[in-house]
Amino acid sequence: MKFLEYTPLDSLNDFLSRVNFGDRTIKGCLEAYSCKHTGTDKKLSLSLEHEILDYLGKSYDTDSSSPSDYLLSRSSRKTLIYLVLTLYHMYPDYDFSSVRAHQFFIEESWDSFKQIFDTYMFETSKEWVERNGGNSLLEDLYRALDEVVRLSECEIYSCNPDCDVDPFLEKGSIWSFNFFFYNRKLKRVVSFRFCCISNLVADGFLVDDECYNDDGEIFDDMDM
Fold it and tell me: Which of 14, 25, 13, 9 is nearest to 124 (CA)?
């Protein structure tokens, strides 16, 4: 996997690096990667493939619930491996397991992504228009993604790890989302993570002793 620099993503990343709303901050980041193996990727991908096959074998041997259908397909296992490799490159100090990862990745559609984005990035989208005018944040995001990975040809995945093993989770996180736009033909993937951080926790005014969730009472009146 090789990190790719794309100008269409730069202005979005500059804006999303920190959008401060006083008591909370919205942060986001888009990263593009080529799925061509580099460095230790080949060795790691083989290890992940064996790990998945071993998991499938044990699942059948123990007569447990049938594994997800996509794990039985080599092309789909390859997709999962690319997604896990992307995570490795995003967080090189974090140890990911492909077997655990398959439980976190969920296939999405543009409509399901749009619904989440419109709900949680509503205020941020208004700030984008106020600063830049013209198109909405979602429209400019769509245009940038389409230029990099051709959205009409993309498979879209969300990644939602458990709170205690979530590498995306930052101190004071109220909510976070992680999406991957994968073009099988181009062998290219774009990751998009965006989150909301409590400035009270991040600045040390409150103790962050547990993971926040979307239903946290103290944030019920906040616009997402």
Answer: 25
